[in-house]
Specification:
single chain, elongated, alpha+beta, Metal Binding Protein, Guanine Nucleotide Exchange Factor, Chain A, 9 helices, Peptide Methionine Sulfoxide Reductase, Chain A, six-stranded antiparallel beta sheet
Length: 393
C-alpha cells in the first residue's frame, strides 16, 4: 500500500515518472515481506484488530474484552450453560497465583506504563517483526511474565529455538495463566493466546511443538518482561502468601460450602482434627472414641480476606451456643476453633470474648478454643459434597 505522502504527491503531480516506476517495481518485494511476517511461520500472528470477537474459553479471560465489551464471559466449565456471567470474586490458579481479571480502571492504569510498541501489541494485537524480538533467542535461566500485569507465564526451561522468528515455549507455568481464544482474522483460523489478568495479547499457539506437549506457544517479546533466576520478583509476580485456618461447626458438608463461597478463600477441605486417633475414617469418627471433630481446613488469601473476617463468618454460619448434635460438647459436631499460630490464637480469643459478652443473659457461647493438631482430610466423597450434588440436581 502506498503511503499517505506518496499518494498526496502523486495526486499533485510531484512524483516523477522514474520515481513512480521504481515504486511499482518495489511493490512485489514489499508484499513478500508483509506476507512472511503474517503467515510464513504462523508465529506470534498478525493483528486481529477488527476481527469478530468470539467467546473466551476461560473465566479468567474476561478482561480481554475490557475495551470493547462488558466484563462477562462464557461459562464453559463443567455443568456450565454457556450463557454469559459476571465474575463474583477472586480467581486463583492451581499454582497459587491471583489471576482475578482486572477492572477497566486497573487495565488503563497498567497501560499507562507501557511503551507505544508494548501497547500496540498487547491491546491492539499487533505483531513485532520476526527475528527482532528481545527474547527470540534468549536462553538465560529465569521466568517470563506479562509486561502488563506481571503475571508469570513461562519458564526459560520450557523455551526452545523454533526458528520461527519469535520466542517459543512448549508449555506455560500454569495453563490458567494463558488463555486461548479462536482467532479467525486474515482468512485463517488460529488460536490466539492472552494473559489471564488483563486479557493482553501475547501471540498464538500451534500444535507443532516439541515433546512432551507437542505445542508451540509463539510470543511477541514486547508482551513479556524477563526476571533472571534468583532475582527478586515484584509483588504482582509472586504467588499468594497463603494462610490456613481450621474450624469445626457441625457437619462439615455445609461448613465447607459456606467458607468456599467467601471471596478470598482459595480452597476448603473437609476432614478431622482435635482427636487422638491417627488416620481416622468417617465410620470411626461417627462411632465415637476418636476425639476428632468434623473440621474444615480453609486456605485463604490474606490480601483479600482477613482471619478476623473468617472468624465472623464462622460464628455467622452456625449456632455457637449449641453443643451440636447431642449433648457431648467434645463430640464430632462440636463448635471449635483451631488456631494455626499465636496471632490467630490472639484473634480467636478476642472474638470469643466479644461473643461471650454479647450473649450475656442468653445461652453461653460453647465454642471451644483448641490447639491445632494434625489435620486428616476426609474421604473423597465428602469433598465438595454440596457443590457436586447441586450440579447433579
Amino acid at each position: 500500500m502506498k503511503s499517505d505522502a506518496v499518494q498526496e504527491k502523486e495526486g499533485r503531480g510531484f512524483l516523477p515518472r522514474r520515481g513512480r516506476n521504481a515504486l511499482l517495481a518495489a511493490l512485489p518485494f514489499a508484499c513478500a515481506i508483509v506476507l512472511f511476517a503474517l503467515i510464513a511461520d504462523r508465529g506470534a500472528g498478525p493483528s486481529s484488530a477488527g476481527a469478530p470477537r468470539t467467546p473466551v474459553t476461560s473465566a479468567a479471560a474476561c478482561a480481554s474484552l475490557a475495551e470493547e465489551e462488558p466484563m462477562t464471559c462464557a461459562d464453559t466449565e463443567a455443568g456450565g450453560s454457556g450463557a454469559p456471567r459476571a465474575f463474583s470474586g477472586p480467581v486463583y490458579s492451581a499454582s497459587g497465583y491471583d489471576i482475578t481479571p482486572l477492572s477497566r480502571e486497573q487495565v488503563e492504569k497498567a497501560r499507562a506504563r507501557l511503551t507505544p510498541e508494548q501497547d500496540r501489541i498487547a491491546f491492539h494485537a499487533a505483531t513485532e517483526a520476526p527475528f527482532c524480538g528481545l527474547y527470540t533467542d534468549a536462553s538465560e535461566p529465569g521466568i517470563y511474565a506479562s509486561v502488563v500485569t506481571g503475571l508469570p507465564l513461562f519458564r526459560s526451561s520450557a523455551k526452545f529455538h523454533s526458528q520461527s522468528g519469535w520466542a517459543s515455549f512448549f508449555e506455560p507455568i500454569d495453563p490458567a495463566h494463558v488463555v486461548e481464544r479462536v482467532d479467525s482474522s486474515h482468512g485463517m483460523v488460529r488460536t490466539e493466546i492472552l494473559e489471564a489478568r488483563a486479557g493482553a495479547h501475547l501471540g498464538h499457539v500451534f500444535d507443532d511443538g516439541p515433546p512432551p506437549t507437542g505445542r508451540r506457544y509463539c510470543l511477541n517479546s514486547a508482551a513479556l518482561v524477563f526476571y533472571p533466576k534468583g532475582a527478586p520478583l515484584p509483588p504482582e509476580s509472586r504467588p499468594v502468601a497463603v494462610q490456613t485456618a481450621y474450624f469445626a461447626a457441625g457437619c462439615f458438608w455445609g461448613v465447607e460450602d459456606s467458607f468456599a463461597r467467601i471471596p478470598g478463600v482459595m480452597d476448603v477441605v473437609s476432614g478431622y482434627m482435635g482427636g487422638h486417633a491417627e488416620n481416622p475414617s468417617y465410620r470411626e469418627v461417627c462411632a465415637g472414641g476418636t476425639g476428632h471433630a468434623e473440621t474444615v481446613e480453609v486456605r485463604f488469601d490474606p490480601a483479600r480476606i482477613s482471619y478476623a473476617r473468617l472468624l465472623d463468618a464462622f460464628f455467622a454460619m452456625h449456632d455457637a451456643t449449641s453443643a451440636g448434635h447431642g449433648t457431648d460438647e467434645a463430640g464430632q459436631y462440636r463448635s471449635a476453633i483451631f488456631p494455626a499460630d499465636d496471632e490467630q490464637a490472639r484473634e480467636a480469643q478476642a472474638a470469643l470474648a466479644r461473643r461471650s459478652s454479647d450473649s450475656s443473659g442468653k445461652r453461653p457461647v460453647r465454642t471451644r478454643l483448641e490447639r491445632a493438631m494434625r489435620f486428616y482430610p476426609a474421604e473423597e466423597y465428602h469433598q465438595d459434597y454440596h457443590a457436586r450434588h447441586r450440579t447433579r440436581g
